[in-house]
Predict the structure.
Amino acid sequence: MANTSDIRNGLCIKYNHDIFKIIEFLHVKPGKGPAFVRTKLKSVTSGKVIDNTFSAGHKIDEVRVETHKFQFLYAEGETYHFMNTEDYNQITLEKSVLDAPGLLKEGAVVTVIINSEDQMPLSVEMPASVILEVASTEPGVKGNTATNATKPAVVETGAEVMVPLFINEGDKIKIETDKGTYKERIKE
């Protein structure tokens, strides 16, 4: 059993007869009244995100997990196939378990969090950023750069990302996976 002082991003807990992963938290100590922890929890079974507030010192049921590196092989409808990089065992996961399936490129290495008790995969952690090639985008209009103007671009995986006007088709760009936002253009 853990308590609210052990809360951190990525922690998996049992709550309301389900397993949730903490994706955001904030310790709050108001001027009046007791302290509490405001959290954003994501269900690892359904992918549903809920907000919850735990009072300070509240006992939480922590789930023991292991992390393993897996390589993304291919997607087939709503299922995604991965291979363990150590023992080459393959697993299939539902699209709802993935945080950013649109940014997943074949051959990418991700971290899969597995429940130690029953060896069931709980969630997939993407790398902090990915480098993808722009497959299609409209050309930027010259002289339209007075503000931080952006335009939609479709990357090689099929995901749509808002990019600055100077990005062209064929450019490689770095994308932050947690927000799905453009970070920078990669020079070759």
Observations:
- Residues 147 and 185 are 18 Å apart (CA to CA).
- The chain has three domains: 2-62, 65-125, 129-186.
